[in-house]
Amino acid sequence: MDKQTAEKRITVEVAYALPDEQFLKEVQAPEGASVMDVVLQSGVLELHPEIDLDKNGVGIFSKPVKLDAEVREHDRVEIYRPLIADPKEARRKKAAAQKKSK
Questions:
Q1: CA 32 – CA 1 distance, rounded (Å)
Q2: Tens-place pLDDT, residues 53-64
Q3: In DSSP terms, which residues pair with 65 in a beta bridge?
Q4: Domain boundaries, given as residue ranges, for the chain
């Protein structure tokens, strides 16, 4: 196989963080691979069966993307955990509690 017919490969990181553990793996993927492709290739779904890609958001460098988004050289694909509480509601409750205590 000569260099012209060889498939170009890119390096991408896949990250998933828990409160007490972090998964971070570098994968080699073909140019044009999707977020889903590199997530599957990383093995994170086998190690963390709690991940449901229908519910967990994904992003590249903190910017939300869809699973079919194309990754580029040196991207970091991040898998986000679902929120436990709505941030706006949590702020409202905290403000109400502070107001009550004054």
A1: 20
A2: 988 899 999 999
A3: 58
A4: 9-101
Planar angle of CA 32, 18, 21, nearest 5 degrees:
100
The pTM score is 0.75
Class of the domain covering 9-101: alpha beta
Please say if the pLDDT value at position 3 is more than 60.
no
Under a CB-based contact definition with an 8 Å cutoff, are residues 8 and 31 in contact?
A: yes
CB 77 within 8 A of CB 23: no
Contacts of 16 (CB under 8 A, 6+ apart): 22, 23, 44, 48, 51, 78, 79
Q: Which amino acid does the sequence have at 32?
A: G
